[in-house]
Amino acid sequence: METRLIAVDLDGTLLRTDRTLSPATIEAVAAASERGLEVVIASGRTLSETRHLLAQLPQVHYLVGNTGAFVLDLRTNTYLHFSPVPLSLIQEAWRQLRQEDILFEVNCGGEIYIPTDRLAEVPRFEDACGNHTLHETRRGVDDYDQWLETLQEPVTKLHLYFPTGEARDAAQVRLGKLKGVDLCTSDPVDLDMTAHGIHKGVGVARLAEHLGLSREQVMAIGDSGNDLGMLRYAGTAVVMANGSDEAKALAHRLTDTNDNDGVAKVLNSLPGVERL
Hints:
By secondary structure, the protein is an alpha/beta fold. It has helices at about 10-15, 25-35, 45-55, 85-95, 120-130, 145-150, 165-175, 200-210, 230-235, 245-250, 260-270, and strands at about 5-10, 40, 60-65, 70-75, 80, 105-110, 110-115, 140, 155-160, 180-185, 190-195, 220, 235-240, 255. α10 (about 245-250) links the parallel β13 (about 235-240) and β14. The chain is globular. The relative contact order is 0.20.
């Protein structure tokens, strides 16, 4: 069955190591759209972290964000799927980790909120994870305890950055004891916490159902731990040459690295279809 929907991860996949889109990638997304293919961003990022990229990819109509916690129709600004994390579990994670050397990032309303006193530490965590754009999208909250206690807006994801992989692994063991959440990683020093059962595969599946497509008509392209759900779901799983061993074990096809336009090469190899 022909591929019609292509769900593409951002970091380590669509983006180069410097977190930018190559001209070849931009052209390939536009050309795929012209051939009737629906290219969708499926990322651990939230809306505020993707706006500058989506502005370069006007042919992308949907965002599967926060590791599958929501699916947003970018043309109408309406949610097709939304699965928040219970606030009580976010609060418990904060009680357990508030004294640790971390960036505790609550994602809600398409924005990312951290304690104001941690803003000065963001460059250090940028160095640890290799993403030097974090400071552009993190918002400080003065009284984080009070804010979390009175927060009314649903939280789509808790994201944590650590100074080392060892610190991340220790926190993952602690948070793994919480009931009602799932944990995954996308780089050596980060940790995602979403509602139980939520991953990119769920978000992509909800979008495919909305579009009237079967999983056999879906291709997923990724590289790391938070892509595993959609790689398992998709009829065709494509993994980057720079991908993890765990991701490659699920691959039906491998492509070139993110710095060598691996996604563009896949998109350019796909035939056209009748537009949805």
